[in-house]
Design a protein that fits this description.
Length: about 290
């Protein structure tokens, strides 16, 4: 490596670290605001999301030296299964209950906007010197999810923590995969601290907003939230195909078809278990334990 190239790498990593840690400092400041305003549920969701993604960074870095496709499939599968179930059980009924048609339009809008933000994030990655494609998309997901979670809990503070915690369940697997990819490319994984804080950075201010909305407005918000989170959940479904992330980690060889078939079974089992876990937690909450 030339001196100029080495200098660029050092500068790149310095910028990444500064941005990530600045985001953590901002989350701490906003957390103080949440405490003063009594936004305890939003505060808990924000820090669980941060802890899950930030805690997965060292695991992802370690995995760059010893990749494990099965572990990646189970992480993605559990998270996506939990998110799909949570959106279908806790958000869709609320949206349809307030107004079926407006709620339905909200779901459609959420899915389409989620897809659009995914594409925009991909485009921004081409002009960003700090982020790679994965980090940009994770940040866009985190900020949009934070805004929606904040609006949902701000308009209906009686909602339980289970919904928000299930929605951010993908943070661990997402942080693991992103950190593994960055470490594999010999880049600093500390930039993942930015999407790790995104839910809180966007969610706490939006939870402070008291929108004068009626049944139609709530139907739109809950429908849009359901659409956004369904898009994110589907995005995290473990796709065991040649050329995909799971296939890349598996380091496919001549027995690629057999290995991918085995990983597909793990994908079905993990997504199903993720949904079952949310169902079991719902039973516990409903029974009063």
């Amino acid at each position: 490596m030339s001196n100029n190239t080495a200098s660029k790498v050092i500068n790149y990593r310095g910028r990444s670290s500064a941005l990530g840690f600045a985001a953590v400092a901002l989350l701490v400041l906003l957390s103080a605001v949440a405490v003063l305003q009594g936004l305890w549920k939003m505060l808990a969701i924000s820090w669980v999301a941060f802890g899950a993604m930030a805690g997965a960074i060292p695991l992802g870095i370690r995995a760059a030296q010893a990749a494990n496709a099965t572990r990646l499939v189970w992480g993605y599968g559990l998270a996506s299964g939990a998110m799909i179930t949570s959106a279908a059980v806790f958000l869709l009924p609320q949206a349809i209950g307030f107004n079926p048609r407006v709620g339905g339009f909200g779901v459609a809008a959420g899915i389409l906007v989620g897809f659009g933000s995914h594409v925009v994030g991909h485009r921004l990655a081409h002009v960003s010197e700090t982020f790679d494609n994965t980090a940009v998309q994770l940040t866009a997901h985190a900020l949009s999810a934070g805004v929606i979670i904040g609006l949902v809990y701000g308009s209906m503070p009686e909602l339980g923590l289970l919904l928000g915690l299930a929605i951010v369940s993908h943070k661990g697997p997402a942080g693991y995969a992103a950190a593994r990819r960055l470490a594999s490319d010999d880049r600093s994984a500390s930039v993942i601290l930015l999407p790790a804080t995104g839910v809180g950075i966007a969610g706490i201010p939006s939870a402070l907003v008291q929108l004068p909305i009626g049944a139609l407005g709530r139907a739109a918000i809950f429908g849009f939230a359901a659409g956004i989170f369904l898009h994110i959940a589907m995005d995290f479904l473990p796709e065991c195909e040649v050329g995909g992330e799971v296939g890349e980690v598996a380091e496919l060889s001549d027995n690629a078809h057999h290995l991918l078939d085995r990983l597909r079974i793990h994908a079905v089992l993990s997504t199903s278990l993720g949904g079952v876990v949310v169902f079991a937690l719902w039973l516990v909450v409903e029974s009063g334990f």
